Amino acid sequence: MSKSNVMNTYGRFDITFEKGIGSKVYDTNGKEYIDFVSGVAVNSLGHSHEAIINALKEQSLKLIHVSNLYWNIPQINLAKKLVAYSHHDQVFFCNSGTEAVETGLKLARKYGKLKSNTKNKIIYMKNSFHGRTLGALAVTGQEKYQKDFMPLMEGVKAVAFNDIKDLEENMNEDICAVIIEPIQGEGGVLKAQKDFLQKARELCDEFDALLIFDEVQCGIGRTGKLFAYQSFGTVPDVICMAKGLGGGFPIGATLANKRAASAFSPGDHGCTFGGNPLACKVALSVLEELVDKGIVDQVSEKSGYFVDRLKNLKSKYPIIEEIQGMGLMLGIKVNIEPKAIVNKCFEKGLLLVGAGKDVVRMLPPLNVKNEDMEKALEILEDVLACL
Ligand SMILES: Cc1ncc(COP(=O)(O)O)c(C=O)c1O
C-alpha cells in the first residue's frame, strides 16, 4: 500500500487501523489494541457506538448538508442543548478545534473593536496549545509549533501559566481577551489553579475583556462535568470545543454569553460546513449519551479507581514522578523519555500518547469498562517492570 501520496506532517506509527469497537481497535492484521488515545480525546463514547451509528444512518437519509443561508433542525437543537447545559447563550458551529479557537479570537477582536480602535490585544499562556491555523498558532505558547511559520498574528502577549502576578502586570484597557486551557493538554496535562482562573475572571471584568476557555481537549465530559469550567468554578465568556463533541465525527463549536456573542453581525464570520445537519445530529446523540444517560456522571468514579491504581504503580516504580490531570484526562509524569513507555505499550497492544516533554497521556473513552482499564494497567505495569 503506497503511503507516499499523503503529506508528511505526522510522526506516525507504522500501523494501519481497520476497525474498532468500544475501547478496542484492530489493525489490518487483526491485532487488538486497547485505545487509550481515543483519537486524542475524540472518541468520547469509544469506537462504533450504536448511538452515533444510528444518528448517522437516520440523518443521512434525511439531509446531509444545507447552506447556512438557511436553517436546519439538528443545528437549532444542538445549539439549544449546549446553551441549556451551560451558562451561555449562543453558539457558532465549525468543524475542528482550531476553527473553534479562531472563532473565539475573531469574536474577541470584534468585541474590542466595538469599544475602541486600540482594544485588540490578546493574552495567552506559555506552554499552551490552541491549534495549527495561523491565528490559533499565534496564541500557542510553544516555540516548536511556531518557529517555522513566522510572522504570526500581531497583538498577542504570552504570560506564565498559573502566574497571577504576570497576568496582572500585563492586563490593561487594550486587552480584548485572555485565552486559557483549564487543563493544558499538549503542554503536559497541567491543571490551571482555581485561584488563577478566578483572578483571570476578575481582571477580564475589570478591563472589559473576554475570558476564553479552550476546552477543545479538556471539555465534553473529560473532567467529570460536561464543560471543564464547571469543574473549576469560574465561568468564562467564551468556550471553544471540538474533539469529543462529535465522538469521532468532525464538529467544533464556540459557545459564548450574550455580552460576547452579540459582537458578531452577519458577514463577520462563517463556515461552509459548520453546523451541517449530519454533524449536529451526531453531536446531539453524543450529548444524549454523555449527559442524559449519565456517562459524564460516572467519569469521576472511573477516574478515582484508575488514579488509585496508577498511584499504586507510582509507589512501585520510581520512574513515575506524578499522576496529573483530572477525570479521564490523565498524565503520568515520568523521569525517562515518555516515548520509551508509549512505544513499549504500543508493542504490547496499548495505545497511549505523550504530552509535553515528560508526560504519558491517557485519554480513555468516557464510557470505558473496568475490564479495559484493568487490561491497560496490566500492560503498563509489564512495561514499567522491564524498564
Ligand atoms: C486545547 C486544544 N485546542 C485546540 C486544538 C486544535 O484542535 P484541532 O486539531 O481539532 O484543530 C487542540 C488539539 O489538540 C487542543 O488540544
| Rg from alpha-carbon coordinates | 21 Å
**SSE class:** alpha/beta
Helix residue percentage: 25-40%
CATH topology of the largest domain, by name, is: Aspartate Aminotransferase, domain 2
Number of domains: 2
Number of beta-strand segments = 17
Shape: globular
Strand order, sheet with most strands: 4-12-11-10-7-5-6
N-end to C-end Cα span: 34 Å
Which cofactor or ligand species appear? pyridoxal-5'-phosphate
CATH architecture of the largest domain: 3-Layer(aba) Sandwich
**On the 0-100 scale, what is the average pLDDT?**
98
Total helices: the number is 14
Unreliable runs: none
Name the CATH class of the largest domain.
Alpha Beta
Q: What do we call the CATH homologous superfamily of the largest domain?
A: Type I PLP-dependent aspartate aminotransferase-like (Major domain)
For the sheet with most strands, the description reads: 7 strands, mixed
